[in-house]
Amino acid sequence: MNERHPIFLNSQTANMETDMIPEVILSSGHRMPVIGFGTVFDPLPPLNLLTSTLVEAIEVGYRHFDTASLYQTEDAVGQAIAKALEQGLIKNRSDVFITSKLWCSDADHDLVLPALKETLKKLGLDYVDLYLVHWPVRLKQGVGIFCQKEDILPFDMRGTWEAMEECCRLGLAKSIGVSNFSCKKLSQLLAHATIPPAVNQVKMNPVWQQRKMRDFCKEKGIHVCAWSPLGGYGDKWGSPAVMENPVLKDIAMAKGKSIAQISLRWVYQQGANPIVKSFNREWMKENLQIFDWELSQEDLDKINQILQTNGFSGNMFVSPNGPYKSLEELWDGEV
User: CA–CA separation, 117 vs 237, rounded Å?
Assistant: First the structure.
């Protein structure tokens, strides 16, 4: 079956508004639920609050959770899975799909496997379902997102990916992929990969539609996951460009849906997986109610006309002494 087209399986929870949960089959042969629950928060909530929120998300019906070493939420995800098993919300570890990411300070051949083992220790799991290279960037060890120019090191894409492939062969990651890679960087990776990336997770929403990336990934059999599908509305790093867009507002009003649902449905109809997050139970449920209706061609045509703006440049990874001396080099002219 072509991984571009979601298949539908019976839900394992009575709390879902619909009894069908879509999944996609990745190029690795593994299935991934089409909506992921994101766990990046700034500021970071207390562990008990975040854990209870994630348990509630499982109760509502989420089965795909997206975390990363950088987010410092792997512990909470692991505890939530354990509690969900104890409470009978899920029957087995295999009932949930867990994505985590290799941070840039571990983007080196000899550091990848130890980094994944540390992630698994925090999660309390034997494997992750998907492990992503967070950025095509390497930083000095111990450095987080607020890096200095001198912290940026040459990035050995080939060596890093070879170590990712070893993680996959060892069964520690069922599928492997990348995040924030341009089409050119994906091409460079595919030139030497023996296990191709199953996923590229990129910023994608109606005001940053990633048309070139989507076409490229479809051609190469790489599934697209969309972070910030609502533009990060209300977040420190976010923008109101999606949730206050007049085109989306008009479509939402006409269909009796929320703007968030219009945006998420648009992402889904492009064949991508949105990564959502909310502490509000009703919004959690609302974000899942996008599968029993669709946007018309007229709706899609209107959305295609929306002025495009990224809103997140990645400028922190640009350095006169690093591998990317300009945003043009970081994004290969795709932003």
Answer: 29
Check residues 319 and 109 and name the one with the higher pLDDT: 109
pLDDT category, 2, cuts 50, 70, 90? very low
Asked if pLDDT for residue 62 goes beyond 80, the answer is: yes
Half-sphere exposure of 5 (CA within 13 A, CB side): 2
State yes or no: is 71 an active-site residue. Answer: yes
Across the chain, the runs of DSSP E, i.e. the strands, are 7-10, 20-25, 31-33, 36-38, 64-66, 97-102, 128-133, 138-139, 152-153, 173-179, 199-203, 223-227, 273-276
Give the rounded distance of the alpha carbon of 317 from its chain centre.
20
Average pLDDT over residues 202-213: 95
DSSP string, 145-197: SS--GGGEE---HHHHHHHHHHHHHTTSEEEEEEES--HHHHHHHHTT-SS--
Could you tell me which residues are beta bridge partners of residue 58?
none
Q: What is the pTM of this model?
A: 0.92
pLDDT of residue 234: 56
DSSP 8-state secondary structure symbol assigned to residue 325 = S
Sign of the torsion formed by the C-alpha atoms of 154, 158, 159 and 163: positive
Which residues, other chains included, contact 298 with Cβ-Cβ below 8 Å and sequence gap of 6+?
none
Sheet-wide strand order for 20-25: 7-10, 20-25, 31-33
Residue 9 CB neighbours (<10 A) = 12
DSSP string across 57-90 = HHHHT--EEE--TTTT-HHHHHHHHHHHHHTTS-
Q: What would the two tokens of residue 138 be?
A: 């390497």
- Cα of first residue to Cα of last residue in the chain, in angstroms, is 32
pLDDT score, position 329: 86
Q: Rounded to an integer, what distance in angstroms lies between the CA atom of residue 44 and that of residue 316?
A: 21
Report how far apart, in Å, the C-alpha atoms of 147 and of each of 55, 118, 137, 142 are. Answer: 33, 22, 11, 10
Q: Are 172 and 128 in contact (CB under 8 A)?
A: yes
Among 62, 71, 268, 324, the active-site one is 71
Please give the Cα distance from 23 to 6 (Å, whole number).
5
Nearest to 135 by CA among 113, 119, 157, 162: 157
